[in-house]
Structure formats: structure tokens, C-alpha cells
Amino acid sequence: MVVLMTHMFTRFNVLLVLAGTLAASTGASLATALQEKPQVVEIFVERFSFTPSEFRVKAGAPVEIRLRSDDTDHGFRIVGTDVNVTIPKRGKGGVTVTFVPPQPGRYVFECSKLCGAGHSFMRGTLIAE
Ligand SMILES: [Cu+2]
Asked: 114 C-alpha vs ligand 1 centroid, how far in Å?
């Protein structure tokens, strides 16, 4: 699995863009998947939620997840994968992580940085189809 991080996006609008032409086959190799234009999801993060908290992407294809906080720093971990990044506090930019769901299914994500009383409720689901 390949994880890429940058600190470069400037807007926190919630949107889901399916970009480019994606391979229909979920059996596409990782190398093939990485040559495709990524799907992009922007997630707005605050105590104690991710918005959207559920979204659908294509299995076997890269999804670029852009995260921005409106308060303190948070974490974003996809359970069962090596994806775990820190989302900087408001005003310090965002973080982008690229993830290739290896197979169709539900991938739970959660905050990985203790951020207050509702921290354990900060969860969501990425659905790969
Ligand atoms: Cu937290």
C-alpha cells in the first residue's frame, strides 16, 4: 500500500469528485491503479465528527482524501491499514492521504488523536465497491 501526504489544499468544501476514467476491474494491479487519476474526497473535521462520515469509492483505485480541521488537531486512521495521519489544527493547512482500497468492502476510519470528550465517537466508513 502506498501512502502519499501533502499539505496543499486550501478549501474545506465537502465534495466528492470522481475524476478521470477508472478501470472497471477491481483486479487491476497497484501499478495500474496508481497511473489513474485519483478519486478525490474532501472531509471536514471538527469535534467530534467527520463530514461526510460515509462515502463510496471504487475498490482497487486510488482515492485522494483531503482532510481539514475547523478546530484542534485530529487524527485520521483507517482501521486495518497503515493509513494514520495527523490533521493540523485550524489555520495550519490540511493533510491529504492517498489510499487504494485493496478489495470491495467497508473500511472504518476514526480519529487517532485524543481530542476531547467525544473523541471515541469520531468514526466513519469508507465503502469500496
Ligand atoms: Cu479525536
From this structure: 4
